[in-house]
Amino acid sequence: MAIAGVGNCASALVQGVEYYRKNPPEKTGNTTGLMHPTFGPYKVEDIDFVAAFDVNRKKLGRDLSKAIFTGPNCAPKISDVPDMDVDVQPGPILDGVAPHMRVPFNVYSRSRVKPVNVAEELKEAKADMLVDYLPVGSEKGARYYAQQALDAGCGFINCIPEFIATDADWAKRFEEKRLPIAGDDIKSQVGATIVHRALVDLFLKRGVRVEESYQLNLGGDTDFLNMTVEERLHSKRISKTTAVASLIPYQVPTRIGPSDYVPALKNKKICYIYLKGKKWGNIPLQIDLKLAVEDSPNSAGVVADVIRAVKIALDRRVGGALNSISSYSFKYPPVKIPDGQAREWVEEFIKGTRER
């Protein structure tokens, strides 16, 4: 696979794959952190990184194994990573970097560095798929890399809140080329969205009427610094709000999304979830919950499943939006269903009884 955006999420993914390569679950018996130790015929350690693109001049030309530990990355250390013989190459800047992020991201000078032809590099590397890890708000950038994947004959995984897999036109383009696409906006293993959804689902199944809800998120890495510009958050708020609101069959006042940047937190994310409802006899009920996680590793385990699902789709020559893994793994999938049903769809997809 290839990576667009060698930030904290990419670091956690690359490190994690190496960790499970050194500690294979089938030999150690330790499946901690894995939703699927094997996904169809594929293990996590089968994932091979062959290309990477970024705009940080300090990462360009460095081996991926070293670039993932280059500032401003601050993902926690999971594993040492040996040299991978994969140099990070310059991708186009486009709208991937907000003006206030140019210094933190150490953006290369256009007069000194020329971006590579991404599609040609993907072909040269024989990449099966490309994962989009660009910063939130990269509307043009996400679509650029989606097109490069199409041009190179690659599958595409859209981990950011730009609506591509959910866009009928984009999905059709991938289907016509028999290339799979999964998205949009990756969930975490146990993160704010999945916990919020679980609480809402609990209320509804236990006969409690949801009256109000909010979710406030704080973090200290460059992702949260990037999201201090409200204009870059439009699709993110839609994605996170819809992920929760789509479960409730009536309108509920809510506010969901990134709330503030706290540098001291670094890669740690703090989430506050509030739910208010009415139970038996119209008696009020309230939940206030705090969740603290290391943010980047929290999504890497989910992406590891998505990668293997896309590989199975490529093996089967299935193109277009993969509804099963998208509904299970993303906040804003093409088809929005309860998490339990989504997991059933994924198991059916693995067995081959569900096409997508």
Description:
With 356 residues, the protein is of the alpha/beta class. 36% of the residues lie in helices and 19% in strands. It contains twelve helices and 13 strands. A hairpin with a 5-residue loop joins strand 11 and strand 12. The model has no long low-confidence stretch (mean pLDDT 96).
What is the secondary structure topology, with strand pairs?
Blueprint: E1 2-4, H1 8-22, H2 25-28, E2 38-39, E3 42-43, E4 51-54, H3 64-67, E5 88-90, H4 118-125, E6 129-132, H5 139-152, E7 155-158, H6 168-176, E8 180-182, H7 192-205, E9 209-219, H8 222-226, H9 234-245, E10 254-261, E11 268-278, E12 284-294, H10 295-316, E13 320-321, H11 323-329, H12 339-351
Short description:
The chain has about 350 residues and is of the alpha/beta class. The chain has helices spanning about 10-20, 25-30, 65, 120-125, 140-150, 170-175, 190-205, 220-225, 235-245, 295-315, 325-330, 340-350, and strands at about 1-5, 40, 40-45, 50-55, 90, 130, 155-160, 180, 210-220, 255-260, 270-280, 285-295, 320. Strands 5-4-1-6-7-8-13 form a 7-stranded parallel beta sheet, sandwiched between helices. It has a 4-stranded mixed beta sheet with strand order 10-9-11-12.
